[in-house]
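From the shared-data thread, chain only:
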Amino acid sequence: MKFMKFAAATALALSSVSAFAADGEPVVGATIYGPEGNVVGTVESIADGIVTVDTGKHKAPLPADVFGTSDKGPTITVTQAQINAMLDEQIAAATAQRDAALVPGAMVHTAGDLMLGTVETVEGDDVVVKIETGPVAMKREHFAVNPAGTLIALFTMEQIQAAAGSAQPSTAS
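Structure, as tokens:
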């Protein structure tokens, strides 16, 4: 019986240790716990000091320095519900900002910040942008407003031109 308790304690200790890298950051695949010990999500990726936690609803980018430790493993001071609510609010705000900017006559830039053209029409989720080579049909979800307040298409000029070219009817007989 003592051996079973020792084995279980050792397994728990090893799982907690293996949830962290040598620099103290959680590792990919680690379960993240909230302030009351409830699961917040799983670490999906780590890059440049940002730990992306999959909450099951969102992929939350969190600074690596917000993580602490507990007997269960890596922890943060917010719950899964709080993270999801914060991201829902941010997404709603970004969507409202995009929708307010996405109107006929609005100038549109590319993801690379090149001038693309102007919005010709917006009908539901269908958007037509007039570019130098003619109109291009896109979807509302293909647009955003960047931090400078500029309406952008979420593609490069090359991607848009390639898609527009492949959508052109064939003139070959």
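The first strand starts at residue 31 and ends at 33.
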